[in-house]
Amino acid sequence: TFKMDYKARSFKIQDVLAKLLENFASDLKEANEKEAKAVELYDTLMESKNAEKSSAQDALAKMEKETGARGMSREESASELDALTTQIKNDETYIEQVQK
Question: Quick check: helix, strand or coil at residue 9?
Fold first, then answer.
């Protein structure tokens, strides 16, 4: 029969597994910290970009109102010019009639 003393060799394997677990745990911790920083940076960036977008939309809305007011003013000016031109023609006609 084959009889030898048993030597426990699993201690090295257990040490390797313990070191792997420690490495994985530290890598996970670092990855979670990086992710938290990235999320915080993203939130800050999105907040500033949304504020920038909002101010740009407000400026655009004001510009549209101003452009619309200019258009109305131009239309009003054109109609006033037509009315004054008609009034001048009528006045000239009246003056000619009075002089005759």
Answer: coil
For 6-51, write each residue's pLDDT tens digit. Answer: 666 678 888 899 999 999 999 999 999 999 999 999 999 999 999 9
Length of the chain: 100
Instruction: Using the Cα atoms of residue 31, residue 32, residue 38 and residue 41 in order, give the sign of their dihedral.
Output: negative
Tokens describing residue 63: 């510009």
For 66-83, letters b (16+ CB in 10 Å) and e give: eeeeeeeeeeeeeeeeee
Query: Tokens 């010019």 label which residue?
Result: 81
What is the C-alpha to C-alpha distance for residues 71 and 10, in angstroms, rounded to an integer?
88
